[in-house]
């Protein structure tokens, strides 16, 4: 059974403002749900029925069709052929609706004319008004084909004059191959009890051109016994089919750039995955860097110019004989290359394209640079999956953006699998919290002078039922991207503060400080100060016993408001320790804006002090630690592995250390035994 509820709700939201008919939201969603089921479980015939049904339910605004085709093409697996059939059915429904309305008008007019002949001539004027103003061609003829009258629409359709047609028979303007069939149908109509029939027949213009028409033929039987006559309403199907073609084209092409749209691009991908597709393919996805910033700074017209700029260069590099180009998103383009020579040739085309973008485009007096992040996926074509191919391209573009933007990246299956596993871990954090799979361990910070415990660093540990014990670094990046790290850190902060509060009750002033990492994502939370205050109030831990460890690059990532939040924490007595100092460019000016209470070193800075260490690394470590003493802050070291490292660190002014030399992380119960024994 097709699940049509969600797409029906989203479709209803897309078109609700365009509807002329008065629907309740519930009734509209129920109707669209039926359409979705019909489209996803059927083929082009069912799609055509959906188009006709939309007209029958008064979905007759042009915006309704446009928004519906765009939505179905981009958010459902409806095929391009079905979209075309839906548009065709919609056009046919509009045609039949118009014919019905015109036929009703014609019937009313003819009835009025008959009564007018017996009563007043005024009613004939009404019929003439309908007759002459109709958009459809109308012929009034005798039963033997003699033309009695025609309207202006028919004259324009066939390019004849009144006097010409009045000297002709109806059979003269019908295509020779269709005359016998039309004559037989007319005889059957006259002999039957029915009043009208509809047929498709060809007609011939004055210049000899053949046009396909749709005819609604009605027999008018007078009550006074006079011979009946025929009234035929004629629609030019060539024009209707041109309209259908236009609707289909609009449904499969982007209005702004003129390129094929996402719906048509998906159709290409489905085609190359078939048994008759190429052996190999390359999919190139191009994302414009900072596109929203251009719109915000210079307006949407400037954004449109950027889109056209990129589209023009894509067309020039990936010519029709080489590849197919489409716009597949607001700032995204897709390129499909069939049977590329090799990956290197595709990369060469991409580099040619990016090189052409180096010339800025001028918006007023501003020379605006345009850069793109590009993902390249090359693989076998036949038997593939279009959805998976697009996902791979999107993932690859994400790598290019994370690696610094304005560059291309090549799809790596192993990296993708690794990332998916990490994203799956990050997504399952809420369930793992509910099931109690997380715990907080503690890595003590020991005094390098006497070995006493100066602090306890909280470490989040995940006892995963399938992957074993996992540390936070395994899934920190992905959980930061999806926001799950916020929930996890709130839980860990409260759990660690509760443990520390219990130890503080027993130890009093001898209680070591509680230290915990503060990831950059937490610093972006507007309620950081309030949340920390709530945790301290609930657990009873004094603020002076809590300190946060900040990654060395964090200060450069923070804006002024976020720096103010950290300053407020420090003013309330919470310590801030700059963590993972490893000899890089820290940015001293930015550090001065943070009220730090300590600095922690790691990596080569610590290991450069070991026995037998490289002399260059040793001198660099010594110089950095001597510089750090100028900050007049307590210095700490992590990942201390040997007694030699610990001794050298102590001589250089480092207060405390942690790592393999001092022992592993401890559980909460082991910390209790250590502190309270």
Q: What does this 3D model show about the protein?
A:
The protein has 677 residues and is an alpha/beta fold. It folds into 4 domains: 4-103, no CATH class; 134-241, Beta-Lactamase; 253-411, Alpha-Beta Plaits (2-Layer Sandwich), CATH 3.30.70; 442-462 and 483-676, EAL domain (TIM Barrel). The strands form 4 sheets. An 8-stranded mixed β-barrel has the order 13-14-16-17-18-19-20-21, surrounded by 4 helices. Helix 19 (484-507) packs parallel to helix 28.
Q: How would you summarize this macromolecular structure in one to three sentences?
A:
This protein is α/β, with parallel strands linked by helices and 677 residues long. Helix content is 50%, strand content 19%.
Key descriptive features of the protein:
PAS; Biofilm_reg_signaling; Beta-Lactamase; alpha/beta; Nucleotide_cyclase; five-stranded antiparallel β-sheet; 19% strand; Alpha-Beta Plaits; 677 residues; 4 domains; 21 strands; PAS domain S-box-containing protein/diguanylate cyclase (GGDEF) domain-containing protein; eight-stranded mixed barrel
State the CATH topology of the largest domain: TIM Barrel
Major sheet: arrangement of strands: 13-14-16-17-18-19-20-21
- Second CATH tier, the architecture of the largest domain: Alpha-Beta Barrel
Distance between the termini: 65 Å
What is the radius of gyration computed over CA atoms, rounded to a whole number of angstroms?
39 Å
Domain PAC: 197-249
Protein name: PAS domain S-box-containing protein/diguanylate cyclase (GGDEF) domain-containing protein
Organism: Lentzea albidocapillata
Domain EAL: 422-677
């Amino acid at each position: 059974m097709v699940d049509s509820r969600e797409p029906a709700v989203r479709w209803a939201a897309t078109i609700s403002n365009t509807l002329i008919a008065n629907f309740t939201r519930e009734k509209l969603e129920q109707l669209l749900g039926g359409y979705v089921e019909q489209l996803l479980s059927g083929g082009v015939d069912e799609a055509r029925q959906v188009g006709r049904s939309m007209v029958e339910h008064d979905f007759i605004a042009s915006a309704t069709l446009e928004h519906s085709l765009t939505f179905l093409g981009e958010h459902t697996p409806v095929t391009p052929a079905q979209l075309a059939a839906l548009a065709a059915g919609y056009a046919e429904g509009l045609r039949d609706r118009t014919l019905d309305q015109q036929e009703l008008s014609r019937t009313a007019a003819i009835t009025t004319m008959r009564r007018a002949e017996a009563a007043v001539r005024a009613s004939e004027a009404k019929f003439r008004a309908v007759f002459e103003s109709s958009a459809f061609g109308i012929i009034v003829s005798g039963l033997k084909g003699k033309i009695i009258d025609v309207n202006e629409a028919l004259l324009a359709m066939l390019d004849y004059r009144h006097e010409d047609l009045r000297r002709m028979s109806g059979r003269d303007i019908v295509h020779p191959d269709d005359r016998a069939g039309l004559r037989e149908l007319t005889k059957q109509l006259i002999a039957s009890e029915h009043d009208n029939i509809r047929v498709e027949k060809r007609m011939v213009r004055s210049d000899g051109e053949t046009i396909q028409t749709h005819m609604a033929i009605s027999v008018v039987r007078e009550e006074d016994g006079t011979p009946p006559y025929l009234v035929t309403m004629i629609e030019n199907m060539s024009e209707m089919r041109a309209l259908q073609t236009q609707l289909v084209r609009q449904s499969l092409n982007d209005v702004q750039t003129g390129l094929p749209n996402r719906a048509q691009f998906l159709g290409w991908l489905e085609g190359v995955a078939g048994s008759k597709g190429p052996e190999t393919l390359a999919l190139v996805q191009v994302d414009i860097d900072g596109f929203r910033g251009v719109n915000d700074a210079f307006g949407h017209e400037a954004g449109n110019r950027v889109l056209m700029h990129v589209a023009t260069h894509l067309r020039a590099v990936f010519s029709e004989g080489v590849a197919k180009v489409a716009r597949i998103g607001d700032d995204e383009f897709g390129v499909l290359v069939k049977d590329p020579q090799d990956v290197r040739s595709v990369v060469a085309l991409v580099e040619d394209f990016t090189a052409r973008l180096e010339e800025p485009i001028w918006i007023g007096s501003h020379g605006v640079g345009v850069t793109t992040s590009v993902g390249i996926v090359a693989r076998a074509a036949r038997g593939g999956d279009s959805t998976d191919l697009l996902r791979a391209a999107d993932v690859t573009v994400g790598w290019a953006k994370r690696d610094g933007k304005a560059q291309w990246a090549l799809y790596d299956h192993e990296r993708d699998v690794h990332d998916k596993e990490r994203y799956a871990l990050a997504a399952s954090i809420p369930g793992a919290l509910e099931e109690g799979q997380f715990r907080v361990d503690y890595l003590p910070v020991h005094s390098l002078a006497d070995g006493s415990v100066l602090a306890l660093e909280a470490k989040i540990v995940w006892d995963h039922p399938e992957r074993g014990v996992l540390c936070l670094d395994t899934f920190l990046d992905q959980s930061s991207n999806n926001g799950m790290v916020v929930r996890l850190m709130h839980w860990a902060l409260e759990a660690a503060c509760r443990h520390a509060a219990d130890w503080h009750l027993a130890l009093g002033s001898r209680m070591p400080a509680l230290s915990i990492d503060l990831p950059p994502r937490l610093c972006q939370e507007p309620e950081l100060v309030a949340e920390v205050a709530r945790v301290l109030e609930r657990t009873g831990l004094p603020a002076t016993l809590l300190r946060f460890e900040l990654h060395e690059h964090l200060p450069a990532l923070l804006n002024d408001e976020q720096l103010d939040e950290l300053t407020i924490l420090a003013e309330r007595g919470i310590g801030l320790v700059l963590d993972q100092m490893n000899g890089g460019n820290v940015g001293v000016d930015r550090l001065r804006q943070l009220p730090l209470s300590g600095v922690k070193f790691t990596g080569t800075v610590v290991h450069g002090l070991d026995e037998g260490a490289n002399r260059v690394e040793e001198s660099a470590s010594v110089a950095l630690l001597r510089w750090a003493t100028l900050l007049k802050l307590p210095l700490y070291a992590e990942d201390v592995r040997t007694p030699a490292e610990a001794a050298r660190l102590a001589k250089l002014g480092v207060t405390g250390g942690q790592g393999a030399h001092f022992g592993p992380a401890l559980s909460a119960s082991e910390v209790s035994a250590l502190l309270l024994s």
